Amino acid sequence: MNTSSQNQTNEDQLHFGGGNSFSSSYGPPQVYPSENQTQQSSQSQHNQTIPTNGTKSASSSPGYSQYPYQYSQSTQQQQLSQTLQNQPPQLPPINLNQSTSFKGHFESHWPLYSVDWAHCGPTDLNIIAVSTYSEDITNKIQIVQASPSVQPSTGLVLPKSLDFFPPVEFSVPYPCTRLAWAPSSYVASSSSMPLITTGDCLRLWNYNTDTRQLSQRCALVNKAKSSYMPPITNFDWNSVDPSIVITSSIDTTCTIWDIASSTARTQLIAHDSEVYDVAFVYNSTNIFGSVGADGSVRMFDQRALDHSTIIYDPSNPVPLLKIEANPRDSNSLAILASDANDVHLLDIRMPGGPVASLNGHQRSINTIRWAPPSAVPRPGGSSPGSSNISESGNAPTIKSFRHVIVSGSDDCQAIVWDASTTVQFPISATPLNHTSGGAGSSTSSNGSVLNSGNNKENYSIIAAYTHNHEINGVTWSRDGSWIGLTAGRGLQAVCL
């Protein structure tokens, strides 16, 4: 691929002197400590880089507040009453007497959107963060802790069922566009787990596992000359150096932050219009990709930010909403277009178009997530060179999670894909078991294997799960044995 680089003097470069004066539409990052401390065709694209040096100023932020939590209920009388009131019935609690219960459920007072299962912190804890979305001035971050269910009559642990504890909550003024725990490479203290949320700004939190308290450490904003602060659409937390975080914004920029010092390292104009998502490639602190309303995928290198490489730019572009970098393969990316019912897979060494597409959903896909690098393979009886997937009882046996990805859609279905294995068409998916209770039913997607572009490789569905609400967010547990889904007002944990 041909790329060109051109030196350019940035007339809008910030100048910090004795009075910290500057001339730019982007000023220094404003750092707001918490009031309560116990809270990127082979075309070349020229970019404008805006160096920044942060100054700090204090301001207040919303204080901590507790709100009542809500669990699922099971009585027919309550369900009937709520149905008559045009309210969705709450789900029954987990049946602890069934060892085949593969699920756990938490019901919030508000619709849920973003979700992330913690991979840092104590290995014996299942801690999940969710965020609400509401038109009200107040939205919530909720931290839910889960543990394996225990059968009361025998005291035996039911490993395929989870009980959720009451959530810890914190109020934020706007819905979170994303939230994420620190990557597994982060060396956490014995009890403190960092969390980042984005929306009106980038907020850094600490969650204390001993006291189960959530505290806001600071809020970071690249404040413009005007009072308008453009929303942050998404972010990525670097897994090699957890002090580096990159954010995207509707103002066409991406900003690289040093959260250890609460300062912005640099800001660049990445696209010609809104930037919707950004992601570092595997095992790199410098190379990242971005997507946005112009429908292109652009790759950047922090060491040469005066140009970018466009690896995907279709003739009839559709806005791209998400980019996910494979956490086990530095060349593999997954992208999601607006109102699309398929996921495109890209290889950054082969610019121009997708190398594969995963087709199986009937309606728009809302969310995608690669299996984490800490996911534990499940060796089966398959011979070497055969499919990565085999069946063992009611659960799929996965020999490698290298190219396993989950998607969630408006068709109320979550599909777990293996994009690495050529298989015989068709293949039958192994359903994620789900006991009765109204949250959904198990489903098997036979023959939902896809090819892409000129590639006639088949990509298999490992498992599929159907809910009765559109799925907004997906996440993986640390070892890959569970996936978490947000749908409606519920958080659903399903065991693979």
UniProtKB/TrEMBL annotation:
Biased composition (Low complexity): 36-49, 59-98, 377-393, 433-451
Record keywords: Repeat, WD repeat
Ranges for region Disordered: 1-98, 371-394, 432-451
Pfam families reported in the protein's UniProt record: WD40
Domain of life the protein comes from: Eukaryota
Biased composition (Polar residues): 1-11
Regions that span the bilayer: none
Name of the protein in its database record: Uncharacterized protein
Source species: Magnusiomyces paraingens
